[in-house]
């Protein structure tokens, strides 16, 4: 089994920067690339090198990691004119850590394989805090062999690392995560809507109910923000909606009926329509407030 | 402040029996009553006495606890011809631990007060397991003074004891609990619906996602039952639906709009229509399976 030492990291966003820094901390060399070149600065300060194209970043890489916004972005950094696939050496393994459509991830895997390389998808959960602390959950899809070979790389960035199945399965489990997170926060906001109507002190609901059958990450982390009227995002409505679109498309492809997911997507659309797209996902509460009697 | 020693316990159901036994264990005397008299046997075996009417049970009680199915049942055991109110001594405090409509609880409180007694509502969460282990969450509504006086009684039955506000507020917070529990299990079932369609191993979803933003009591406790096709109830669909009716009625009274709660109630109605009313609430999964492509 190879020990991977040299990593190309494509995409220096809110997630990519701390993930790349954790790789450096773990002893990997990191060559990074970002469309807006200035965003590579924090990684360069931490000991990485900045490259002008994905192709250049990939030149000596054992592992090429992409962590970008959507499917077309992944295709562009891998297969575009200056794409990483054109610079990679034999035996390079491509790891896409973006959240994209499962079907698109399968297609990308097949294109990477057709060029003679290996591919593993590995979307993550845990947000920017998890990325900074190296405590991401990593949801891998790909062959067992490739997954095992990537263990040291994943261990530098995450804590709970799971092989979910072949290509597509990791993205699928990521969408399961988004579905549950969505319904959990809707539950908190509907509870608050009733409580507000009944003049119940919102601040005591978390204390009274946490630990019981109503418990959720949303109750433990977002209820107090709603009670305080703090709409700052841990995770933005606009980003959640990008993921809900992937959820509903994937569900359509396999003919799975998701009435709650469809509903909460419409409610978040109302948040977006009211200019709250860059608030946190708990801005659902504002949607319900607008729908309900303000008395 | 009195120390309450003598308790009348009205309603020997799945919750009442273990709650009464925990009171005995804590040193209280317990006189119990149940419509079907045979159900008092386990409490009598544990040292309680059985009475033929609520009135008789209340005769020497410092505290009269009711824990029955619905509002009319509470009214009957308190105010009926043989109701506890007719047997109670001065200074008795009435505690209703049933889950009933907040508005009905307020009415009952007023009727108890009109008869010269005190009233505290105290619905619980935590199910039969919590009742047995004395780890219920108790959601009280009533005066601060009465609440404080009842601390030893509550401590014998529960762990997280909260005064939620005046009459109605405890029942309101209980309904908040039911709303969140409902949306959390819907999220798990929709995630499983997508995963099943995508041929993802259902058993790994809990392991991969627990601890993250998708976490909930439902994911931690019910996902494995769904994956195993085990529909045995922790909490029955029929009982949940009784509570969802209270949720939607209370919401209507305060003009709170709860689209997710309305939706999940309809889905559980489908479970009931298909003969699954006595399954656990996670039988929502079967509803989604029937709606979705079984491939």
Task: Characterize the structure shown.
The structure is a homodimer of 295-residue chains. With 295 residues, chain A is of the alpha/beta class. Chain A has two domains: 6-167, Rossmann fold (3-Layer(aba) Sandwich); 175-289, N-(1-d-carboxylethyl)-l-norvaline Dehydrogenase, domain 2, CATH 1.10.1040. Chain A is built from 15 helices and nine strands. Chain A has helices at 16-25, 41-45, 54-57, 71-79, 102-114, 127-133, 144-149, 151-157, 169-197, 203-209, 217-221, 223-227, 237-254, 259-273, 284-291; strands spanning 6-10, 29-33, 49-50, 63-66, 93-96, 118-121, 124-125, 136-141, 158-165. In chain A, the strands form two sheets. In chain A, strands 3-2-1-4-5-6 form a six-stranded parallel sheet, with helices on both faces. In chain A, strands 7-8-9 form a three-stranded mixed sheet. In chain A, strand 1, helix 1 and strand 2 form a beta-alpha-beta unit. In chain A, helix 13 runs antiparallel to helix 14. The first copy, chain A, starts with 5 loop residues before the first strand and ends with a helix. Chains A and B meet through strand 9, helix 9, helix 10, helix 11 and helix 13 of A and strand 9, helix 9, helix 10, helix 11 and helix 13 of B.
